Every structure is written in C-alpha cells, then in structure tokens.
Target: Cytochrome P450
Amino acid sequence: MWLDRKTSYFNRQHDIVLMNPLFAGAPILFVASRRVVQQLLGNEAKLRLVKPVELTLQSLIGDSLASASGDAWRRHRRILSPAFNTSLYSLAWDEASVAYEEVVYSEGWLTERQFDVSSINHIVHKFSLMMISRCAFGIPLAYEEPTSNPANPDFPEALVRIIKDFVLFAIVPRRMFNLPFKRLRIAKISWQKVESEIKALLRSRSSQESKAGEDNADILGRLVSSSGKLELTREELFADIFTLMFAGHETTASVITTTLGYLALYHQEQDAVAAEITSVVDASGNISFASMSNLPKLQACLTEALRLIPPPLFLPRDTEEDITLEIEYPEKRQIVVPRGSRIIIDMVATLRNPSYFPNPDVFKPSRWLEDNHDPDAVMFGAGPRQCIGRRFAQSTIMRFVACLLRDFEVDALTLPGETREEYEERIMTNATMAGTSFTLQDVPLRMTRRIK
Ligand code: HEM
Model:
C-alpha cells in the first residue's frame, strides 16, 4: 500500500480494485475513495460488516472494543463511551503540558540554545505512553526510562518492553515463550508482570468506593464498574485496557512525529503556527484548554500530517451478505460485493486520492482551512465505529506541539550537502509499521530555543 502509493489503483484513477483469487480464498476489495468509505462505515450495522478478528489483536489479548462486532461491540462501546468526555480531554490538555516539561527537563533541552535530536520518535513515543497511562488508567508512568534488572522488571519497564517487543507477541505462539531463549524468557516475564499489575490495579479499584459508574468516572473506573455488574468479563476488561494502551499511544506518537518532521521542513507554515500559538499564550506562559479552538492552523497541520502518514494503514471488514456500492471513478456505476468478501480500506490511497486532495503528496495544511473542506475526512474512521479516542488524541497532540513550538524552533537536520528536498525524500517517505501503527522512521531535528 505504501510502496506503490503513486501507481496503485491504476495510477490513482480508480476508486476500488477487486482481487479475485484464482483457486481459493475470498475476493478482496481494496478501497481508495472517501465516498465509498463513508458508504461502508456509515452503514456498518445495516450492511452487517464484521471485523476480521485475525487482523486484530484478538488472538493475543482476547475480545475487545476494537476486535468485537455486533452486539458484543455495542456492549463495549456503551460502557466506554461516557468516559471519553470533556473532563478527560481537559485532563489530557493539562497533563500533556506537565509531561512535556518532564521531557524538556529529562532530555536536558534547557541547557543549550541549539541542539540536535537524532530521533524525535523515541521521545514522543515515551511521552504518549505516559499520557495514556496517566490519564486513562491513573498509572504514574515517569518519563525516565527505568533501569532495573530485565529478569525482574518493574511495571513501567515491563510495559515498555512489551511495547518494544510487540511484534514478537503478535507472531510467536504463546507456548513458544517457554523455549530457552533469553529474549523470549524476558518477554514472558514482562508480559506476566504487566498482566499481574493490571489485575492488581483492577482489584484495588474494585475495592474502592470510587466514582466508578458515574458518567464522569475515568476510563479505568468505567471498566471496573461494568465488570462489577458483569457487563464485561475480566478477560474483556483486560483486553480493553490493553487495546486502549496500544491504540492510544502509538497512533498519537506517529502523528506528533510526522507533524514536527513537516514543520521542520516548511518554515512558513511553522512560523504561522508559532504566531498563532503566541497569540493564545497567557502572561504566565500557559495555554488554556479553552484556547484549543483558537488554534486552527495548528489543527490543520496535524490533520495534514495524519493524511500523509495515517497511523492505521488499513481498516479491514468482512461481508456477511451481498452489498451494493456506488463508485465514481473511473466512471459512475454500481458494483456488488459478494458475501464472504474481505474489504480493505486502504488509508494511504484514500487520503492521497487526487480527486479529493489535489497534489496529494504535498504537505499543504491550508487545504483544511478552505471553506469547503471536509472536517470528517476518514483519518479517524467513520460512522459508529469511528475512533473513540479522537478528541483525547487531539488534545494530547495539540498541547504537546503547542508547548514545543512556543519554546523551540524546529529545523530539518540534514546530512552534509543534503538539500531540503532530499531530506524530505529520505526522511518523510521512510515509513513503516512499528507495533500496531504506521509511522515515520527516525526523524532527526535541530532545535533552537526561542527565548534566549
Ligand atoms: C491520532 C491518533 C489516532 C488515530 C489516527 C486513530 C484512528 C482510528 C481509526 C481510523 C479507527 C477506526 C478503526 C476501524 O474502523 O476499523 C480507530 C478506532 C479506535 N481507536 Fe483510534 N486513533 C487514534 C487515537 C486513539 C486513542 C488516543 C485511543 C484511546 C485512548 C484510540 C482508541 C481507539 C479504539 C478503542 C478504537 C476502536 C473503536 C471501535 O471499534 O468502536 N484511538 N482509531
């Protein structure tokens, strides 16, 4: 999807491509059109689309909000939805500033006026993990990497290790973790540690007469109280915590990395965003939650970053009955997708489709500020299953980037003799899957403090 992005869908001329297997297997419909995506995801229940569990984390962690379909999905969503409210977004906004200060302090960014960061990715990855742990689950994860013994890790270390080794967990069968290989043994110990800590956390929350069950309870509170009423089993509870942990931090880290990478290259955009941020900073240097809506240029940069490097590379669905879709390109017509087909919504192709996004490979945040722009382009999905963490992510990302651009100017850290165009080609198209998200690989930046 990524490597062939400029030539796939017959040089970006077709809305869909249907692959019919010659001998066995289901037909696969690849989708590259926002309008088709809306027809599918906007009518998910009516069309009886289901998530193919083998393309989710189900085999690893069990049934969760992200992997379930039908009534089971409705139950998870009904329990979790009320926890995603303004109090959570406001908490994320405030906590992102606290966590940002920890990053600045721990990385020693205050000691020099100008310095180079070889990869911003690792820094924002740790930041976003702290954010979801603290805001959603009350786990006080610190920025400093823990240094304890890998054979007996503490909780944060075990968590970081699982995340780093996530692919291992996804592909190696559980029984193989008993084999005498050091990496597998440490992975297993880490998994057990995280599992037991989450269970302990759940026990301690269950025994508290906390706010759980009220609409303003935090995410963990909602999950614990629903488990008490037997709405979610312990296994489902565990799976939801894991899902939110992963869905919540890798995606966020990817967007921050892409945004900073592009702003480091496009100084005109960066200057406009920095001026916008300055206009909302109060006398004490603070940026209030209320001013989030006064940062449209920053918001447009994040949206454009999401369009160019979408953290979920594709959204899969299976059909249980024949469905009819209207396509527009190369010509308007109806097609019937037979039952038993797989649908793959190709996010890269959809978000770089020239019919909707002229000059699709160019970073152009202003396209999101035009009068007729679509505020609901599909980066966060569409319809009833669209991302539950959207506003939490936006709050976190906007606050982090706003704090960083308030304090620093970012510049592309080019190689000797390298032009900015060459940097853009080398760094901003070097994307891959990391864990469960699609993301740029190492983005090196030069940072200069604004206040001398
Ligand atoms: C910029 C960051 C993010 C992006 C781009 C993103 C994108 C998406 C997309 C496209 C979907 C729809 C998947 C589908 O239809 O198959 C989705 C679903 C989901 N997202 Fe996010 N997400 C982000 C951040 C978050 C955060 C911070 C959380 C948790 C705090 C989260 C939790 C979830 C969950 C649980 C689902 C499944 C919802 C359901 O099936 O009802 N996401 N996300």
Summary: The longest strand covers residues 314-319. The pocket of protoporphyrin IX containing FE is lined by residues 65-66, 77, 132, 243-244, 247-248, 251-252, 255, 306, 311-312, 315, 379-381, 385-389, 392-393 (CB under 6 Å). The CA atoms of residues 56 and 383 lie 19 Å apart. The chain is about 45% helix and 10% strand.
